[in-house]
Write a structure and sequence with these properties.
Layout: E1 4-13, E2 16-26, E3 31-36, H1 42-49, E4 57-62, E5 65-66, H2 76-83, E6 86-89, H3 101-111, H4 117-130, H5 146-158, E7 164-168, H6 176-189, E8 195-199, H7 203-209, E9 212-217, E10 220-225, H8 227-232, H9 237-243
Parallel strand pairs: 3-8, 3-9, 6-7, 7-8
Antiparallel strand pairs: 1-2, 1-4, 4-5, 9-10
């Protein structure tokens, strides 16, 4: 059984239909990379998966559990519970400036009673070691580079132990020299039974980390396949035209 199943997801903003029926599945431990031009629906898809937006039509199932039944509106409590299945790393870090690095990572697990204070702190320090920032636990966001802030954001998202971790253009706000350190961290998470969805414009990274690649265009999945199928032998003219720009 697929860990994540998405069926016929549609989303409209006013008169503009941004998602026009998106369906895919993802196995546990797989990395899905989504590519496409601006306005193709990539970010809206991630926001719908994370219940920051409510789809107009469609179904979302995680580990066999339906999260979205559009016949019945979701209560605020249901939305909060559904969000726990997903983590989202934003383009612009979104760290809490008045908390230090350790506080940023431990805040949500503490509020959710995900262990004793000592257990939560030890897990946070373990995550900081994984992203190479154990020595920055007491630093505040303003004292960190953009790349370091994004690595803290990754650790913060993983601290909630989501089934699926989503990245929305995680390097788009970074200078080129800082991009590599963030991509190395994401790549290092692969193969640790972690399921990830990454929206990115870094094609070399996409080739190296993806198990499955989706190319989105005009609110639909134009083409889906392995990195070799999409990058080396694309079937769609739209896919070929997009990749010629890289």
């Amino acid at each position: 059984m697929a860990l994540l199943q998405v069926d016929n997801l549609q989303k409209r903003f006013g008169n503009t239909q941004v998602l026009k029926g998106v369906s895919f599945s993802l196995e546990r431990g797989q990395v899905l990379v989504i590519i496409g031009s601006s306005g193709s629906g990539k970010t809206t898809l991630l926001r719908c998966l994370n219940f920051l937006e409510t789809p107009d039509v469609g179904e979302i199932t995680v580990d066999g559990k339906p999260l979205l039944n559009l016949g019945q509106p979701l209560s605020d409590e249901q939305v909060r519970k559904n969000r726990l299945h997903f983590g989202l790393v934003f383009q612009n870090f979104n760290l809490f400036p008045h908390y230090n690095v350790l506080g940023n990572i431990t805040l949500a697990p503490t509020l959710m009673n995900m262990g004793t204070p000592q257990e939560i702190k030890e897990n946070a320090m373990h995550l900081l070691e994984q992203v190479g920032l154990a020595d920055k636990a007491e630093a505040y966001p303003y004292q960190l580079s953009g790349g370091q802030q994004q690595r803290v954001a990754i650790a913060r998202a993983w601290a909630m132990r989501p089934e699926v971790l989503c990245f929305d253009e995680p390097t788009s706000a970074l200078d080129p020299e800082l991009t590599g350190e963030v991509l190395r961290v994401i790549k290092g998470l692969k193969g640790q039974d972690r399921t990830m969805i990454v929206v990115t414009h870094e094609m070399d990274f996409a080739k190296s980390v993806a198990d499955v690649v989706i190319f989105m265009a005009d609110g639909v999945i134009e083409e889906m396949g392995t990195p070799e199928e999409i990058f080396d032998n694309p079937k769609s003219e739209k896919t070929r035209a997009f990749l010629q720009g890289f």
